[in-house]
Amino acid sequence: MKIAIYGASGYTGAELVRLLSRHPEAEIAAMTAESNAGRPMAEVFPQFSALALPTLQKIADTDLSDIDVLFCALPHGTTQEAIAAAIAAKPSIKVIDLSADFRLSDTAAYAHWYGHTHLAPELQAEAVYGLTEIHRDAIRGARLVANPGCHTTTALLPLIPLARAGAIDLDHIVIDTKTGMSGAGRSAKVGMLFSEVSEGLHAYSVGGHRHTAELDQELSAVAGREVLASFTPHLAPMNRGIYSSIYLVGDASAMHAILAERYADEPFVTVLPFGEPPQSRHVRGSNYTRIGVCRDRRDGRAIVMSTTDNLVKGASGQAIQNMNVVMGLDEATGIGQLALFP
């Protein structure tokens, strides 16, 4: 398969290059980076100096005629028009979008959360939300897959099976998430300087983080009614990782049994023994999710913990997992690498 990557000079774009370079069925044929156009990828990310990669170029100069799969790793608000133009140029192309631009099926909800009108509503109608383990059948026939956010991937993988089984009180879901610095992107920002974030922890977008809309959408779809979880993300002084602690009302041992059965045959989700919490370091650099269930000291309450690497399962790894499903390949092709530890 010939691959194009829009936005290759960001963290998720670079992670796509790292993973796809080892994919036996993929050839990276084109890469774009508007501000770095004309430069070799190795000048932007020296770790790729050993690879023979195409020179970075502008989207307007990219020929998609031979491209089978397009990955879009562009900022939200810029992707809708870029994907619409790509599909107009080549209707048979498969697109995996890593931005938020096609995640919300309701275009009015998109406008509310992202502050502008959806620019490709006709394509939104066909976009499939790309949480692979949950929407695999729909993804298989999709032309446009909207890769989920990293926070939502980590929280929804345990929550959806529990909600579907009726094992939790849907009106009492509290999600507390810690994320690594790379989730904020690669652009220079004062608030992301080492001295600003090191040796400290802080909440952000409290009560209004945009990933909340994905949680609302997916949990409400499963429940058949409106479900509004409480969600607060925190920035942690680490490069990679997402760690969600989810506080639920229900029987903890029953929750563990449901999750263990649901994910017993999934290649990238591990449910730990009852009472064992996961550690983010054990998924670093990998496409794996580790889930733990612990009993709260109060009867009828449980703490479910889930961890992923935000750049892999939370972004580029899941995007390739979705590509594999769309293209009829073994789902784990090219993304089976184990975590880097220590």
Explain what you see.
This protein is an alpha/beta fold. It folds into two domains: 2-126, NAD(P)-binding Rossmann-like Domain (Rossmann fold), CATH 3.40.50.720; 151-310, Dihydrodipicolinate Reductase, domain 2. The protein contains eleven helices and 14 strands. A seven-stranded parallel sheet has the order 3-2-1-4-5-7-6, with helices on both faces. Strand 4 (69-72), helix 3 and strand 5 (94-97) form a beta-alpha-beta unit. Helix 6 runs parallel beside helix 11 (312-326) and helix 7 (150-164) packs parallel to helix 9. It is globular, with a radius of gyration of 19 Å. The mean pLDDT is 95.
Topology (elements, then pairings):
Elements: E1 2-6, H1 11-20, E2 27-32, H2 41-44, E3 56-57, E4 69-72, H3 79-89, E5 94-97, H4 107-114, H5 121-124, E6 128-129, H6 132-140, E7 144-146, H7 150-164, E8 173-179, H8 194-197, E9 202-203, H9 211-223, E10 230-235, E11 242-249, H10 252-262, E12 269-271, E13 289-295, E14 301-308, H11 312-326
Parallel strand pairs: 1-2, 1-4, 2-3, 4-5, 5-7, 6-7, 8-10, 12-13
Antiparallel strand pairs: 8-11, 9-10, 11-14, 13-14
Helix pairs in contact: 1-11, 6-11, 7-9
